[in-house]
Specification:
6-stranded antiparallel beta sheet; alpha+beta; 9-stranded antiparallel beta sheet
Length: 271
């Protein structure tokens, strides 16, 4: 067991850079609605809308509120475990303490993604005598324009915090959207869409790259992600069977297959 609760001891500041690319594509073209379609939605909306079409086109790709922001080292205490832990242990993160980081993207960030669960978890992924690597996963939502019900909900934010236990400093911190062809959910005027943002990331200026560190005890990034899935989604405990094996099993047992086709993935907020 290791106690990391008070390991960050310096008063140094940590510069964090924000990158947020425009939406590249969506399934139903919600973010590039024509002026005619926008005006029709606007006329049918339940409340008067004070928004021009040009403002609408900028709504879903605003860019970061703060391209560069300086944090205190103490701010990163929010990612540390509340008690002693072993490598592989998972703990809850305080949603309120995640918001200052997310609001570097947009001031409307909220941790309220629904479903009554805590959408922020961390895990001690690796440990050495000098360093610790904490992986984390955060689910959040951005209310882009409450007047028209416009929101952007990233699939998830994944990241890690590498700390120097000897000096009490932050070596590296990153938080990013997964890079895959559908990684954001969005909505406005009561309609919904799914799309792709090439890059949405916060990253510190690293003191040392993780590749140069030798870990004495560690789990892989994939193993850490699996732990987050199990902690966030009850269905992740199901033992899934490949479709080829299911077909053979159905034949052998003379039972039908009930197939459900999904658009998107189950284990984050993008579908």
């Amino acid at each position: 067991m290791i106690d990391l609760r008070n390991v960050l001891r310096t008063s140094a500041t940590v510069p964090v850079q924000a990158d947020w690319d425009p939406i590249e594509s969506t399934a139903n073209n919600l973010h590039w609605a024509t002026e005619e379609k926008f005006n029709r939605s606007k006329a049918q909306w339940q409340e008067p809308v004070d928004m021009a079409w040009e403002q609408w086109l900028e709504l879903f790709s605003p860019g970061p509120a703060h391209p560069l922001k300086h944090y205190n080292t103490a701010d990163f205490q929010a990612f540390l475990p509340p008690s002693t832990v072993n490598v592989g242990d998972v703990w809850d993160l305080d949603p309120e303490r995640m918001l200052p980081f997310l609001r570097q993207f947009h001031p409307s960030a909220t941790m309220d993604v629904g479903y009554g669960r805590n959408g922020a978890k961390a895990c001690l992924r690796a440990l050495s005598s000098e360093y610790a690597d904490i992986a984390f996963r955060i689910h959040a939502r951005f209310i882009l324009a409450a007047s028209v019900g416009a929101y952007l909900r990233p699939a998830q934010f994944a990241g890690h915090l590498i700390i120097n236990r000897d000096s009490g400093t932050v070596c590296q911190w990153t938080l990013s959207l997964p890079n895959r062809n559908s990684n954001v959910d969005m909505g406005a005027f009561g309609t919904h869409d799914i799309g792709f943002v090439p890059r949405m990331e916060l990253s510190s200026l690293p003191e040392m790259q993780p590749e140069s560190m030798t870990w004495e005890t560690a789990i892989t990034a994939q193993e850490a992600d699996r732990k987050f899935q199990n902690a966030l989604y009850k269905f992740a405990e199901i033992g899934w069977t490949p479709i080829e094996d299911a077909v053979e099993l159905a034949k052998a047992s003379n039972r039908p297959i009930h197939a459900v086709l999904l658009f998107g993935v189950l284990d984050d907020e993008s579908c």
